[in-house]
Amino acid sequence: MSVSLSGFFMKKINDLMSAKGYLLADGATGTNLFLMGLESGHSPEFWNIEHPDRVLMNHRGFIEAGSDIILTNTFGANQYRLGLHKAENMVSKLNYEAAQIAYSATSGCGREIVIAGSIGPTGEIMKPLGPLEKDSAISAFSEQAIALRDGGVDLIWIETMSSQLEMQCAIIAAIPTQLPIFCSYSFDTHGKSMMGHEPKELVALVENYPEVHGYGANCGIGMSELIGSIICFSQARNDQSRHIIAKANCGIPEFIDGEIKYNGSPEMMAKYACYAKDIGATIIGGCCGTKKEHVEAMHTALKSHQPKNRKDLNEIVESLGEMTEGNISLVKQYLDQNYVPKSKVNRKRRRRK
């Protein structure tokens, strides 16, 4: 039963993949819902029952732009994050409704769309550094994963993790759904997660779980930094059958006229998408700041892109923006090559970080 169900959905994914060699994921959820009126401090997941039409509109915008994969509006729909709004008893309802909205968005679009059930971190620190017990984390992720499965998602998408143990808990919780699992870390200026983990550690973890069919990086601090992480993944992996995920932020956030805006243009995101594909990513999308016009540019660029061998860090930095010395050093270790940067590290951005 387990192999059959997971195999059914992976066949759908791999059939789509074989047609063009990659799948285009969607862009930001929070960024776009804020543009539709979501207020700061209000949980985006509440809109699954308060404004399902707006959540649906966001999904359809990405589908129209060319996305093959859409993520449910459930990133923070676990008992700990919802507990901040005294809504920890709404986990099942909010996840189920989100999956149903995503399913509705795919109807009538004329092509196959993969629905990924988004699961983000709890926001708590795992023991022994913090109070969160392993069993409690697994229980929280399980409640979310089961509701997403029941709502009709095609796979479980664990994202923006920084803790190896929390990632493992989420994977363990997702296995009983019998759905394929995909997961990603968020890496910072040194190419490592907030908890100090680097790409090869995620590779080592997921390759112990046959239920995990893809892994990679999302969010972070910019396109070039994320591309550095993708280089590391492409060098570290042993199982070539697993997909590599690249889902970068749309540039760097800047505070302009009282609002946070990302400085990445559609043209820059198109360049990033082509770099990601050349380096080995097979699932490519955008994270914070990414709107449908960015996804459309990525879709157009990838459709006509001719593969190149592009792992030269000078070229990446010149095309996509600064990469910090810490990340450059880490990527060099994975590539085992000599590298002399042509430009200085962006000190202003480091201070803002």
Low-pLDDT regions: 343-353
Q: State mean pLDDT (0 to 100 scale).
A: 92
Shape: globular
Please state the CA-atom Rg, rounded to the nearest Å.
19 Å
Note the total helix count.
15
Strand content: 5-15%
Tally of DSSP β-strands: 10
Class derived from helix and strand content: alpha/beta
Kindly state the percentage of residues in helix: 40-55%
The major β-sheet equals: 8 strands, parallel
Regarding quaternary structure, what we see is: single chain
Spatial strand arrangement across the major sheet: 1-10-7-6-5-4-3-2
Question: Ends: how far apart?
Answer: 47 Å
What is the H-and-E element order? HEHHHEHHEHEHEHEHEEEHEHHHH
Description:
- The protein is of the alpha/beta class.
- The protein has helices at 2-20, 30-35, 47-50, 52-65, 79-83, 91-106, 134-151, 164-174, 199-206, 223-236, 266-279, 292-304, 313-320, 325-335, 347-352, and strands at 23-24, 69-71, 114-119, 155-161, 181-185, 212-219, 243-248, 253-256, 259-262, 283-286.
- The strands form 2 sheets. Strands 1-10-7-6-5-4-3-2 form an 8-stranded parallel sheet. A two-stranded antiparallel ribbon has the order 8-9.
- Helix 4 runs parallel beside helix 12, helix 10 runs antiparallel to helix 13 and helix 11 crosses helix 12.
- The longest helix has 19 residues, at 2-20.
